[in-house]
Amino acid sequence: MEWLEVFVETSQIGLEPVEGVLYQCGLTGLMIHDADDFTEFLENPNRDWDYVADELVEEKQEQITGITFFLRDNLYGREQLSQIKGALQAVKETEKELDLGSLALTLKNVAEEDWANNWKKYFKPFPVGEKIMIKPSWEELPAQTDKIVLKIDPGHIFGTGTHETTQLCMELIESYVKKDDMVLDIGCGSGILSIASLLLEAKEADAVDIDPNAIQIAYENSDRNDIPRETYHVRAGNILEDEILQQAYSGKQYDLVVANIVADVIIALTKQVPDYIKDGGIFLCSGIITERKEDVLHALEETGFTVLQIKEKTSWVAIAARYEG
After folding, report:
1. In what order do the strands lie in the sheet with 126-128?
2. Inter-residue contact 158 to 190 (CB < 8 Å)
3. How far is Cα 108 from Cα 105, in angstroms, rounded to an integer?
4. How confident is the model at residue 35 (pLDDT cuts 50, 70, 90)?
5. 3-state SS of the chain: helix, strand, coil percent to 5?
6. In DSSP terms, which residues pair with 285 in a beta bridge?
């Protein structure tokens, strides 16, 4: 299996929060690069080394603070990279008082633009759950199907349906969405979850993502699936902090709220979702690594939700909960 080496640049203050984001995205085996560590070593009078080569000093002095991690060089890795980008952008928005550095991502030995297109050769039509067939917009179906065909081109945004978090959420949507439901998709990415809800006969869907590029991509995907613009509305912004966004969704009494993000954001959302959801409405949350399951369950129970179902796949968890009011 081929692997892709990725480096995210940050500050010394940013190392811990960025490490937490990467951990929440399912990454382990992180390599931490702290430029100050070597300086402290050189200035330590009690160091064990009597001599340090000039070449090593020069190399280490040029070192940038950040974290290196590895992704599979395939469609799944591309999906995971997109999720990581979104999560890093979210933490930069929510931790504005901290200097987290640029959070720029560098892919070793390959241009990101090239890699972002090469993954397409791995993306073929495939079923999700019992009712849906995911079809890349540039592919043809290999055979006729009686499933609902969801056409998708995620661009550089998270959401092809191949990642476990998206599949788990779509399986829950199949179980809980009802005809004529009102749906809110928080962290919509490519729009795949809200579009799936509409194809499953939800009446209307609102979608929001922290990445402004999601607006165009989600609308392009809704157009591909012949969804009228009057039934689908996409906005960009940080719903945790943007009061205008919060007011746009408050009091609408959604039947179904979906959030496929990361555990910390979902935990924060449990305090806001009651403003958006009707009594007895369903909150579907995914993007949770197994180690954070209990934290999310606790937050849901503390804010008036009753857990109805927990689905797990590899190291990921999705939860369906009913708001009791």
Report:
1. 126-128, 132-136, 148-152
2. yes
3. 10
4. low
5. 40, 25, 35
6. 259, 319
Judged by DSSP in three states, 48 sits in: coil
| Contact yes or no for 227/203 (Cβ under 8 A) | no
Does 42 have pLDDT greater than 50? no
- Which sign, positive or negative, has the C-alpha torsion 162, 168, 173, 174? positive
Report CA-CA distances (Å) from 87 to 40, 157, 173.
Answer: 31, 12, 23
Please list, residue by residue across 223-242, b when 16 or more beta carbons sit within 10 angstroms of its beta carbon and e when fewer do: ebbebeeeebbbbbbbbbeb
- Burial of 54 by CB count in 10 Å (0-12 exposed, 13-18 middle, 19+ buried)? exposed
Structure tokens at 133: 């067939």
Q: Residue 18's closest CA among 102, 75, 135, 76? A: 102
In whole angstroms, what separates CA 292 from the centre of its chain?
15
Q: What is the pTM of this model?
A: 0.81
Residue 163 Cα to chain centre, angstroms:
10
Q: What is the per-residue pLDDT for 90? A: 87
pLDDT in the model for residue 317: 97
**Cα 193 from Cα 171, distance rounded (Å):** 10
Q: Is the model's pLDDT at 156 over the cut of 80?
A: no
* Both structure tokens of 275: 């403003």
Task: Please name the residues in contact with 294: beta carbons below 8 A apart, sequence gap of 6 or more.
Answer: none
Indicate the burial class of 287 (C-beta count within 10 angstroms; 0-12, 13-18, 19 or more). Answer: buried
Phi, psi of 224, rounded to the nearest 5 degrees: -60, -30
- Between 2-16, 243-257, 273-287, the lowest mean confidence (pLDDT) is in 2-16
